[in-house]
Structure formats: structure tokens, C-alpha cells
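Propose amino acids for all 433 sites.
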């Protein structure tokens, strides 16, 4: 006889943790099935150079309602970002430098044009269908850049500023970026401030552990799920090891790039299947570099495809050396084992820098993520996501990749996990009475 629970939640990242916690607090019995031997998913505090470092999702903000509510609830503290130093930017084949204010003067006109219609496209960011965005939904980031008819210098300034979140300008649709900025009042600076500066003391590990400590869900680690079948009266979940579990409903919180590895019955709507087959194109990385000495703080930007390191920033000093974090648009373009190549890439901006060590978690090679954060391909954000938000019989979906707001972020994961738990709870109690 299979085990039986009220709800099975698949995946113990931020979406799964919130869903499991919320469901158990409503009195439902929950099994939380996680493929890896740890919780956290694409947030991961790992030991690197003897230090606890964030190898995945890190930055949070008080303007993110779900994140901030958990931070307050668990009395966690956010760490202010370091003071910004000089900025270097690779544009039209040359490295330019200036103060933060000078970089703003260089980049603001092009970014303002790029995001000009964000609020008009998404006047109610919580409802992506409020306006007909069929035309924008077909537009790639590259199309949008081309439409602005920029000089080679301005084009690289714009692309460099976007490079920290982009893999390939031609692969991503423009709508998700417009939606992200619309969520922050149409102000791209607020969007960037939210996305990349404030971190949690004790790391994202402290956050997810605090959430899971409030849950009575049975956590089963090292339990990859291979199939999920809704037979009309229950859902049967089968693990790769051949164990089965039955539940009233299931919430799948997997990254889009691994959803295709789970056999789902009945078949998904064609639009959802197409999104899963086309995959999230973000094959990017986050590289930690330890550089010799206490280097004056700096940041640097380079367009994706024109340099192996795309957004670089000193993070903090460590025993007389400097931690630098580098967002790498194309994880295949550099290896943490090739310190020489990393040093050469950094010396493009800071000529005398000496690299001591480097490390990352390779999210693209990891079979339980198969990629980084989500930036949707054209055609999906406003069109396909509404399909996957609807329950597929007793099968529900959640996760940052398909969130209604703050797509691709920890906040999006939490928001969608909470929404799925709400819907499953309503359906569960409706079926009982
Ligand atoms: C390098 C990097 C940097 C980032 N930086 C930021 C940032 O600074 N701020 C921010 O807000 N966001 C950031 N993000 C994005 C953010 O980390 C993610 O969007 C978010 O954590 C995803 O949460 P999730 O619960 O939706 O999915 P995941 O965290 O991916 O959780 C899904 C879980 O499902 C499990 N799983 C997969 N397949 C199976 C299976 N078959 N059976 C059972 N379990 C399975 C996985 O192991 C995983 O634990 C970053 C992401 C990366 C990769």
C-alpha cells in the first residue's frame, strides 16, 4: 500500500518550503519530497575558501512582501551593501571608467528609453493580462535594443547593464524585464536595487531553515520524483527509487528546466508543454573570486558575448584579501578552475589584480536545476503562465520560474508557493465538506 498524505509538495526550494509550511499550518498532512540531499534549491550557502558563501540566489529587499514578512517573522537581519567605488564599463571595444554617478549619466538615457513603456505594458503588474501585450510578447531583448537605433557605444552600455541577468539577448523575451521594472513603479533603478544589493545575515540558509522549522511536513531528502499521476480521485507520486505515495493533491515546484524529467499524467496543456520543451535559456553562473590584497571597491560591466565576466563587484574583505562576485552570462565561457583566464578577464578592468582562488556552483550542469534564474523566452510570460497557474486537475504548479510577480527571484518563489498552498487548501476543504 502506498503512503498517503493530504498534499505532496515536490521540491524544497523557497517555493516548496513556503507551500509546505503554510499547508501544515492549516492542519494538512504534507510530504515534502526533495531530490537533493539538502533544502534550498537554487539558494545555497556553501563552504568556499573556508567561508560560508551564497552560491545561488542571495539578494532580497524590504519591498518584497513575502520575503520581508518572513524576515520580520523570524527576526532576521539584512546586511547593507558595501559603498560603491569606481565603475568600469566595456563599450565599443574600450574600457571606460568613472564614478558611480558618471556611469549613471552614461547609462540612464539608454535604460530610460529601453524601459519607457514598462508601466503602460503592465499597469497592474499583479495581472499580466491586464493589457494586450501580444506585440511585446514576440519581442526579444535584442529586438528592443535594435529598435532604439543606438550608437555602438550606447548599445554596449545598455547591454552591459542588462548583462547581470541575461544569458543571450536574442533568446529572452523583453516582457519579463518590462514587467520587473513596472513592478517597481516603472523605475529601473529601483528594480536593480531590489534585485542585487541587500543580503541576509546568516544567508538564505537561515531563512529557509526558519521557514521549515515552523512546518510539520515530513521532509524526504534525496528523493527525486519521476512521475505524478492524477487518476481523478487522488494523485500517485512515484519516486525514481520506485516508491509511491498517494495524495489528495500535489504541488510541483521544480525549475522549468527539470519539469520535463517528470512524467505528468494527464498530459499538460500544449502551451505549457511547449514552454517546458523550449526551456529557460539562462545558462549563466555566479563566480566567486578571491583576489590578493584589499582592493579598492569597484564594479564593472561588459555585454554578454563580449567578455567572459559580465557584471563584477567587490563584495567584502577577508583576512587581507578581497572577495569579488562575478555574474557570468554564459557559464560555458569560463571555468572556476582556470584562474589564469579569470585573472586575464579581471585585468581588463583592474590591470594589476592577482587572483588567488575561484569557485562556483555549476547550476547548468546540476541535474536538479539545469540552468540559472528564469528569464522567459518570447511568447510565454503573458501567454503561457496563466495556463500553468490554473490547477491541472489535482496537480498544482509553483516556483519562481512561473511566479505572477517578481519572476525569477526568491520573492517570486515564495509568492507562488503561498498562492499554490492557498488554492490547494481551499480545494482540500471543499472536497471534505
Ligand atoms: C546563481 C544564481 C543567483 C541568483 N541570484 C538571486 C538573487 O540575488 N536574488 C533573488 O531573489 N533570486 C536570485 N536567483 C534566483 C532564485 O535563487 C531562484 O529563482 C529561487 O531560489 C528559486 O526557488 P524555487 O523554489 O522556485 O526553485 P528551486 O530553488 O529550484 O527549488 C526547486 C527544488 O526542486 C528540486 N527538484 C528538482 N527536480 C526534482 C525532482 N525530480 N524531484 C524532487 N525534487 C526535485 C530541486 O532540487 C530544488 O530543491 C538566483 C539564482 C541563481 C541560480
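Proposal:
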Amino acid at each position: 500500500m502506498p503512503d498517503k498524505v493530504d498534499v505532496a509538495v515536490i521540491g524544497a526550494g523557497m517555493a516548496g518550503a513556503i507551500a509546505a509550511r503554510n499547508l501544515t499550518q492549516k492542519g494538512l498532512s504534507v510530504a515534502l519530497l526533495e531530490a537533493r540531499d539538502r533544502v534550498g534549491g537554487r539558494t545555497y550557502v556553501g563552504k568556499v575558501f573556508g567561508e560560508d558563501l551564497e552560491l545561488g540566489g542571495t539578494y532580497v529587499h524590504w519591498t518584497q512582501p513575502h520575503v520581508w514578512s518572513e524576515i520580520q517573522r523570524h527576526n532576521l537581519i539584512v546586511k547593507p551593501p558595501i559603498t560603491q567605488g569606481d565603475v568600469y564599463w566595456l563599450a565599443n571595444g574600450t574600457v571606460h571608467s568613472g564614478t558611480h554617478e558618471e556611469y549613471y549619466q552614461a547609462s540612464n538615457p539608454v535604460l530610460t528609453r529601453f524601459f519607457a513603456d514598462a508601466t503602460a505594458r503592465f499597469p497592474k503588474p499583479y495581472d499580466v493580462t491586464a493589457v494586450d501585450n501580444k506585440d511585446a510578447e514576440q519581442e526579444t531583448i535584442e529586438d528592443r535594443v535594435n529598435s532604439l537605433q543606438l550608437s555602438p557605444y550606447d548599445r554596449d552600455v545598455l547591454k552591459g547593464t542588462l548583462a547581470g541577468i541575461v544569458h543571450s539577448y536574442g533568446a529572452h523575451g523583453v516582457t519579463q524585464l518590462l514587467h520587473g521594472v513596472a513592478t517597481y513603479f516603472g523605475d529601473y533603478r529601483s528594480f536593480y536595487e531590489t534585485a542585487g544589493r541587500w543580503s541576509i545575515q546568516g544567508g538564505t540558509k537561515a531563512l529557509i531553515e526558519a521557514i521549515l522549522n515552523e512546518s510539520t511536513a515530513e521532509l524526504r531528502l534525496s528523493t527525486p520524483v519521476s512521475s505524478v499521476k492524477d487518476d481523478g480521485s487522488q494523485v500517485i507520486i512515484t519516486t525514481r527509487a520506485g516508491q509511491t505515495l498517494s495524495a489528495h493533491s500535489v504541488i510541483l515546484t521544480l525549475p522549468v528546466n527539470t519539469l520535463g524529467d517528470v512524467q505528468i499524467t494527464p498530459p499538460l496543456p500544449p502551451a505549457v508543454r511547449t514552454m517546458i520543451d523550449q526551456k529557460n535559456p539562462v545558462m549563466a553562473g555566479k563566480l566567486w573570486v578571491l583576489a590578493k590584497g584589499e582592493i579598492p571597491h569597484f564594479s564593472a560591466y561588459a555585454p554578454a558575448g563580449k567578455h567572459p565576466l559580465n557584471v563584477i563587484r567587490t563584495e567584502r574583505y577577508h583576512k587581507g584579501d578581497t572577495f569579488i562576485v562575478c555574474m557570468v552570462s554564459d557559464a560555458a565561457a569560463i571555468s572556476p578552475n582556470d584562474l589564469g583566464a579569470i585573472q586575464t578577464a579581471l585585468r581588463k578592468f583592474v590591470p594589476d589584480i592577482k587572483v588567488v582562488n575561484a569557485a562556483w556552483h555549476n547550476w547548468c550542469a546540476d541535474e536538479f536545476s539545469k540552468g540559472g534564474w528564469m528569464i522567459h523566452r518570447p511568447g510565454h510570460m503573458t501567454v503561457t503562465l496563466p495556463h500553468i497557474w490554473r490547477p491541472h486537475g489535482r496537480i498544482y504548479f509553483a516556483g519562481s520560474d512561473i511566479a505572477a510577480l517578481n519572476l525569477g527571484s526568491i520573492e517570486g518563489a515564495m509568492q507562488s508557493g503561498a498562492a499554490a498552498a492557498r488554492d490547494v487548501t481551499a480545494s482540500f476543504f471543499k472536497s471534505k465538506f
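The chain has 15 helices and 19 strands. The domain at 101-195 is CATH 3.90.660.10 (Polyamine Oxidase; Chain A, domain 2).
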